[in-house]
Every structure is written in structure tokens, then in C-alpha cells.
Design a protein that fits this description.
This protein has 388 residues and is α+β, with helices and mostly antiparallel strands. Helices cover 33% and strands 21% of the residues. The protein is built from 12 helices and 15 strands. The strands form 3 sheets. The chain has a 5-stranded antiparallel sheet, covered by helices on one side. A 5-stranded antiparallel sheet has the order 5-9-8-7-6, with helices on both faces. A 5-stranded mixed sheet has the order 11-13-12-14-15.
Length: 388
């Protein structure tokens, strides 16, 4: 099978630039300080937590060891090593646990070489400047006190997408030494439950019975070739298991606006078709986009959007009052921001009742569904015209 090189979003671009800034050397007192261990053994507690936090692997084996990493004030770093059935999901990662055992962080850490105490948003000018240069688009970091956690100051990073501003979540230490990109999770809670609260299932942009046993949430980009590849396989998997699985499939817009030229326009078109005609016509539009994805152009998506809207009984006046308008892009960006808070950094990314599914190997999705629906049947995963 040809493996798609998934195009990553804003969060991974941040990761790629971490080496550009160097952290100041820790003070002797900080270097010699020893954090209080978490009751019951922090390594074992982290292993149990990561089983629920990391993407699903049927035969997951996780080991956690203490690290000398002390980049985040009030946190200790740990090295996690995960192996399992799917080789492409094997990973090593540094994660952070607060010294009081209450908070968990697994995102990106950006040190500030010219640190100074953070008292107002003006003290984040270094971060705004750095991210504006990195993203090559106007970006502004501001304090968000309502997001304060674990003795860290909440930050919202506003970045201009060209279709409206999107917010990325983060935190900064009070001394300004380090910025954390991502969400701090409550370590005392099941991360799957925390994710379920973060995901809005009320939009109605979904297919399948409303009382389905399982809710599948898909963050995808219509310009993404791998989204098409796995999305069509998901269609087939559900179709061939009608009566065996009970799934409601929710679609979330996650256009990779930094890399894809017509993805935001396609998302706006789908949003407007849904607004005036409902979910089924929206999904038909997505299928039509996938059918011509390889040859689609910026102008071509406009034409397809208008003709599809007309075919679905939407008047031109109604559709054009919505398409590419601020309200429509606002709904698209709302999905994107939800994905950023969840840590979505590639497409497609799936969550099933709070469990992340990274569908990078063929049978990951059906293997997870089989844990709920033991009689699920496999499908042929080879691309058309190719043999496994």
C-alpha cells in the first residue's frame, strides 16, 4: 500500500522550529531541586494513563522512565516508549507530569532565551514575533487568564489564516522561560472522558442513527489525499457491516490552510450546503470533491460548489449569501480550534468515544471497532487496481 505523507497542520510546524531558540541555563537551585514523587509511583501511573491517552493499538505496551528534562517549571519530564501491533504507531515521546500529580502535558515546549516575568500580554511579544516569522502570517499571543492551569498562565495564539483568525491553545510560565503549545490535561481523570467533553456533537453534521452505540468523530481536509483514501475506506467498512455495527459518524472541518490552496473554500462550501440542505447533500458534495480531487483547482472548487448547491435545490442567492462569508468561515474555524485543543496535527484524525484512532495502518479502525462489535467483517484495503 502506498503510504501517504500526511500534511501536518500548524502544531507540527511549531515543533519543527523548536531548535531555533535556546533555553537559558537553569539556576543551581533549580538544577539541584528534587520533585516530590507522585503517590503510588509516577512511572506506573503514567503508563496506565498513556494507555488511554495515546492512539489506539490493540497490543500496546508502554514503558515510562524518569527523564532529566526539567524545561517546564513545576513539572517533571518522563520518556515514554510505546510498541504494539502496528509498527507505524510505535513511538518515543517526552511527556510531563506536574509535581503534585494533578496535571499532564504531551505537547510541544518552546524555550525563551530572553525570559522576563510575564505580567501582561505585552510580555509575550517575543512569542508573537517568533510565531509570525515561523508561520509567515500575522500571529499574536495574548494572555487568557480563564485558561490558567498548574501554576502556568493560559495563552491564546491568534493566527491569521487568510479566511479569519484561528486560536491555538497554550501556556507560558510566570517567569517567561517557556511556552507550552497544546492542552494541559487533568491527570486525575480519564483523558477519554475529558476529550468527550471537548468535542461538540450538536452540529448535526453527521450520518448514521442518532441513537447509535458508537460516535466516530473525523477531522479531515477535502484537499488531503489520505483523507480521501481513508474516508472512502470508512464508507466501505460501514456499508459492508450494515446491521453489525451501530455507528454515528460526525464530520469536522480541519483544512490544512498553510499547505492547501482550496481546502478552506471546500469546507465553506460543505458548510453552506449543510446549512441549507442538510447532512446527506453535504456528504454527497464531499464525495464529488474526492472524485476530482487530483485535478481540482482554486477556481474549480467554486464551480463545483455552485453547481452542487443548485443540484441540491439551494438557490444561488441563498448559497452565495453563505459561501466564503465570515459566518461560514467562522464555523469552519470553530472546528479547527476544537481540533487544536484536542492535539489534532494531521488528517484524517479520528476519535471514537474519546479514544484517538490514528489510521496509519490498514486494520487499525476495524480492530478498534471489533473490540465493540466482535462480528465485524474485514474489507479489501488495496487501492483500486492494486493487489495487497
Amino acid at each position: 500500500m502506498k503510504q501517504a505523507a500526511t500534511v501536518l497542520g500548524v502544531l507540527v510546524i511549531l515543533s519543527s522550529g523548536l531548535g531555533a531558540l535556546q533555553a537559558p541555563a537553569p539556576s543551581p537551585a533549580a538544577a539541584s531541586a528534587k520533585a516530590a514523587p507522585v503517590a503510588g509511583g509516577s512511572e506506573k501511573a503514567l503508563e496506565a494513563y498513556l494507555e488511554k491517552y495515546l492512539p489506539f493499538d490493540l497490543d500496546s505496551k508502554i514503558t515510562v522512565t524518569a527523564s532529566n528534562e526539567k524545561a517546564v517549571p513545576g513539572f517533571r519530564g518522563y520518556k515514554s516508549h510505546r510498541t504494539g501491533r502496528y509498527a507505524k504507531l510505535n513511538a518515543e515521546k517526552v511527556v510531563y507530569l506536574s509535581e503534585d500529580g494533578k496535571w499532564f502535558f504531551a505537547g510541544d515546549v518552546l524555550p525563551n532565551k530572553d525570559a522576563r516575568p510575564v505580567r501582561s500580554s505585552d510580555d509575550l511579544a517575543w512569542l508573537s514575533s517568533y510565531l509570525t516569522s515561523l508561520f509567515r502570517t500575522p500571529t499574536k499571543a495574548a494572555l487568557a487568564p480563564e485558561r490558567d492551569r498548574a501554576n502556568l498562565k493560559g495563552v491564546v495564539v491568534w493566527t491569521e489564516t487568510g479566511y479569519g483568525r484561528a486560536r491555538l491553545p497554550g501556556y507560558v510560565s510566570a517567569d517567561g522561560r517557556v511556552f507550552l503549545q497544546g492542552t494541559i490535561f487533568d491527570f486525575t481523570e480519564d483523558p477519554r472522558a475529558e476529550r468527550r467533553r471537548m468535542i461538540d456533537l450538536t452540529t448535526g453534521r453527521a450520518s448514521g442513527p442518532a441513537d447509535a452505540r458508537v460516535a466516530v468523530v473525523e477531522y479531515a481536509d477535502m484537499e488531503c489525499g489520505y483523507c480521501k483514501y481513508r474516508g472512502l475506506q470508512m464508507d466501505k467498512l460501514l456499508e459492508e457491516n450494515t446491521g453489525i455495527v451501530s455507528v454515528r459518524r460526525h464530520y469536522k472541518f480541519f483544512p490544512l490552510w498553510l499547505a492547501h490552496v482550496w481546502a478552506m473554500k471546500a469546507a465553506s462550501a460543505a458548510d453552506c450546503i449543510f446549512r441549507f440542505a442538510g447532512a446527506a447533500p453535504m456528504f454527497r458534495f464531499k464525495t464529488q470533491v474526492y472524485a476530482v480531487q487530483e485535478s481540482m483547482t482554486v477556481g474549480g472548487i467554486d464551480q463545483l460548489a455552485v453547481t452542487t448547491a443548485e443540484a441540491e435545490g439551494i438557490s444561488s442567492a441563498d448559497f452565495l449569501s453563505c459561501y466564503l462569508r465570515d459566518d461560514s468561515f467562522g464555523r469552519v474555524i470553530k472546528d479547527m480550534e476544537e481540533g487544536y485543543r484536542l492535539g489534532v496535527n494531521s488528517t484524517p484524525t479520528y476519535f471514537i468515544d474519546g479514544t484517538e484512532i490514528t489510521w496509519i495502518e490498514d486494520k487499525v479502525m476495524e480492530d478498534y471497532l471489533r473490540t465493540i462489535f466482535p462480528k465485524i467483517k474485514t474489507i479489501e484495503y488495496a487501492p483500486p487496481g492494486q493487489k495487497k
